[in-house]
Write a structure and sequence with these properties.
heterodimer; A: mainly alpha; two-stranded antiparallel ribbon; 20 helices; about 0% strand; B: mainly alpha
Chain lengths: ~500, ~100
């Protein structure tokens, strides 16, 4: 589709770009206003609503945009809504969190919109250049937001580690992309002449890649290139061995941003991974299934990474006492579960990932919100700060218990549905190793119960360190209820989730 | 081989990549590590330009355009990274990455 027609499908991104500029200017205009927090929050929400309107008004379809740089399809729309939801929650949480000073709130909001723009692009990128640019946009803004509190030593250290790991991971990904470009002489992943169609075509340029000395060498470079590209994606979703930045950044960054970081960029990383692997290495057959087009064992590679990621995340989480670090390791573990769905390499697997991501946004942002509500009074995020929370702030404590049980994957909470669907997709794929992967997943869930239950025990069974009451703002209580109720309802009635995921990928319900 | 061909460029690219990796892993100075990251990015750039010349269909510029974008992004990343290093120096009074280890369990 040519550039002018494509613009019709690019309105949400254009609105976001305008929002970034407008928020920076507005930040200056209301500098002296006493109501600046309310004005800035309201206008950020208004810009989000405008983006949502643009997204809803966008014509549906499955078409390449800008000559194949981006792709308009239901998957893109699904992820855009997910990102909008996560951003809305973050914007509501930020002003009262006492972590971002009122003077710099506008800056924070504007940068958050820039991050959102990068994530929107990640959700639709189908060209190596576009994928790289989108990933870098998200990364660069994340570095800035992590070091937002400049006088804070922890924040600076976290940002330094983030920028070093991020620079290396994106450099490695870029090197892999350069190899892919050399193999296929194109940067397009989808479409005619793209990497996917060349791989599906027996007479592809892969076999003409004389530079690599014939076919075996070309195959080897293909494996290396894919593993390198996986490094960039793995870093965004915090999977082993690119997870080291995760705990430090989660602990050092302002907590509202940590909440966003744990759901937004992670989901965006999965959007890129789903698009890249399914467009390049799988071919859709009549009936909705997928068959591999190459000998490349990418599902096996991802399966192994998935098993290591969730095991390491869960085992390390056990010894954590700081809740932000604990949730960082738990989010690494959740990246492992999600990768399991990807390693199934099937429609059912991807649909399960989508369901899991929706639920994950609800429960993880909810859990972080309780951490924020407590730490704005105690100033700490250790488990001991949560002792006696059941008496001090019953609603927050109950909500956190719901989120933690849901994160564990216990019925009747929504987390169970997500996990069950992922395990089912892997088992459905069949084969000894796939079943083993599911078993490892179930064992890991059991391990995770141990450290989640420790928090619940501290909240309800242990006496508080002091009797200072914890007052939760009405806004926070409202958001907590709005997050906890769907977690409960979707755990019992999950048809809407499945219907939504089925509409976003594959067209039919494969779950 | 008498003339310079694609393999020569690829070998230089791979060597740059390896040197960048070694720099990142062995340096303790934050600025030194960032230099290693730049080496990795330029290794990929060299690959892109070499492939564009030797492999891509004549007249196509995808590889060269890619490398220009990478150069721009590398500049942006360096700006942010150096700002962070400056903030590290102001709070820790050192830019040795082994001395910035508050966050460790």
């Amino acid at each position: 589709m040519d550039n002018l027609t494509s613009l019709r499908f690019f309105v949400p991104e254009s609105v976001l770009t305008a929002a970034v500029l407008a928020l920076f200017i507005e930040d200056l205009l209301v500098r002296r206003s006493a109501q600046r927090e309310i004005i800035l929050t309201a206008s950020a929400v208004a810009w989000l609503a405008l983006t949502g309107l643009a997204l809803a008004a966008m014509p549906a379809g499955d078409v390449p945009l800008f000559g194949g740089l981006l792709q308009q399809d239901p998957l893109r729309v699904f992820f855009c809504w997910l990102f909008l939801g996560a951003a809305l929650l973050t914007i509501l949480i930020v002003p009262k969190s006492r972590q971002i000073s009122s003077a710099r709130l506008g800056e924070f909001m504007a940068l958050l919109f820039a991050l959102l723009l990068g994530m929107f692009l990640m959700a639709s990128a189908t060209d190596l250049l576009m994928i790289y640019l989108a990933v870098e946009t998200v990364s660069l803004v994340s570095y800035v937001l992590t070091s937002f509190r400049r006088a804070d030593r922890k924040a600076n250290e976290a940002a330094l580690k983030y920028v070093i790991y991020g620079g290396v991971a994106s450099g490695v990904m870029l090197y892999g992309m350069s190899l892919l470009y050399g193999l296929f002489a194109t940067t397009r992943v989808t479409g005619a002449g793209g990497i996917g169609s060349q791989l599906a075509d027996v007479t592809s340029s892969l076999f003409r890649a004389h530079a690599f000395g014939g076919q075996p060498a070309a195959q080897l470079s293909l494996v290396v290139a894919v593993v390198f590209v996986l490094a960039g994606v793995g870093y965004k979703i915090a999977s082993v061995p690119f997870h080291m930045w995760c705990p430090d950044v989660y602990e050092g960054a302002p907590t509202p941003f940590t909440a966003f970081l744990s759901v937004g960029p992670k989901a965006a990383g999965f959007a890129v991974a789903i698009r890249f692997f399914f467009a390049a290495f799988e071919r859709q057959v009549p009936g909705g299934g997928y068959v591999a087009v190459t000998e490349l064992p990418w599902p096996a590679i991802i399966g192994i990474i998935s098993a290591i990621t969730m095991t390491l995340g869960n085992l390390t989480a056990i010894v954590q006492t700081n809740l932000k670090r604990l949730f960082a390791y738990s989010s690494i573990a959740h990246a492992g579960y999600l990768l399991m769905g990807l390693s199934a390499a099937s429609t059912a697997g991807v649909q399960a990932i989508l369901v899991y991501l929706i639920v994950y946004v609800l429960m993880n942002v909810g859990a972080f919100l309780v951490v924020i509500a407590v730490s704005r009074h105690t100033g700490g995020e250790d488990i001991k700060d949560f002792r006696g929370l059941g008496h001090k702030a019953p609603i927050a404590a109950l909500a956190l218990a719901v989120f933690l049980f849901s994160l564990t994957g216990i019925p009747p909470f929504a987390g169970f549905v997500g996990k069950y669907l992922i395990f089912a997709a892997v088992v459905q794929k069949g084969g000894f190793w796939n079943v083993m992967l599911a078993v490892i997943g179930v064992l890991n869930s059991a391990v995770s119960l141990f450290y989640y239950a420790r928090i619940i025990k501290a909240m309800f069974l242990e006496d508080a360190l002091d009797e200072r009451p914890i007052s939760v703002p009405a806004l926070y209580t409202g958001v907590l209820v709005a997050l906890a109720v769907p977690v409960l309802i979707l755990g019992l009635y999950w048809t809407p989730l499945i219907r939504w995921a089925a509409a976003a990928f594959g067209g039919g319900n494969a779950l | 081989m008498s003339s310079i061909g694609l393999p020569h460029f690829l070998i230089v690219g791979a060597a740059l990549f390896a040197l960048g990796m070694v720099t990142v892993v062995t340096r303790r100075n934050a600025v030194g590590i960032l230099m290693g990251v730049e080496l990795i990015l330029n290794a990929a750039n060299l690959n892109f330009i070499a492939f564009n010349h030797f492999v891509a269909t004549p007249g196509s510029l995808a590889g060269q355009v890619f490398s220009i974008f990478v150069i721009v992004l590398a500049a942006a990343e360096a700006a942010i990274a150096l700002a962070i290093v400056l903030a590290i120096y102001q709070t820790f009074h050192t830019i040795d990455v082994q001395d910035t280890d508050l966050l460790r369990q």
